[in-house]
Amino acid sequence: MAISAKDVMELRKQTDCGMMECKKALTEADGNFEKAIEILRERGLATAAKKASRVAAEGMVYAEYCPKCKVGVVIEVNAETDFVAKNDKFVDFVKEATKVVMLQNPADVEALMACKTEAGETVDEALKNLILVIKENIKIRRFVRYEGVCSAYVHGGGTHGILVNFETTNDIDSKDEFTAYGKDIAMQVAAANPSYVDEASVPAEVVAKEKEIMLAQMAGDPKNANKPDAVKQKMIEGKIKKFFKENCLVDQEFVKDGDLSVAQYTAKVAKDLGGEIKIVKFTRFVKGEGLEKRADDFAAEVASMVK
Fold first, then answer.
1. Alpha-carbon separation of residue 106 from 33, 76, 77 (angstroms)
2. Which residues lie within the region annotated Involved in Mg(2+) ion dislocation from EF-Tu (predicted)?
3. Most exposed of 116, 183, 206, 297 (fewest Cβ within 10 Å)?
């Protein structure tokens, strides 16, 4: 019998299995939903749905740049335990998903799930097959894709992933010295955690809020409360400069040489290479940031299983 797209979607909704698997099961079951669900369960595919409710805050962050196509990607894929990040199949899936983002440019995670991998299956199907093998909930959480000259850096085996985007001239990005410079900047982002590229990138409302907080602090400080407004404004200007130096990438002290700012280091490298370098934007992913961690005692869980 003919299987409608509506039926396939309904079965997918009930089981969280891939579209093709749902269609095959419905076809084999002659359209009988209960039989199709049973078929999926027998094949172990429906078990993926059960795992979808479990907390996934481990896994890994990965970043990669393709100099030939000038596209960079940073991605976070989460799992339930940190053991998974060391699993070759999991790592291969993360790298394959990164490649799909790089080549197919999906708009978001939902669009990525519908993209085809080199093997011909969708990312969604590949993910569900991986869940069956690893037996943990796994989710692609987020990704960022930049076009143009980039530097990608992965720290701590996947705890941090950094992607920095540059504008350059005179093809200096093809030189080994620029590659080393790009890694330095990515490592700076990883270590110093800037919030903005430069002062111009800081929203006016953020600066206004900082000034408001500074004024409130002065009002509560007996040493500064009665100072003239002109003096207070001068003090605030100094504090705002310090804020920029701490929070803007190009104003930060270069982690490898405290005598230079990142802007000065960039200018030096650009001059040495005979071109210009501008840091355009960056993304810094930290594995599991903002996610609720598993609260259970894993050691106790294993001990109970042994008993």
1. 32, 15, 16
2. 81-84
3. 297
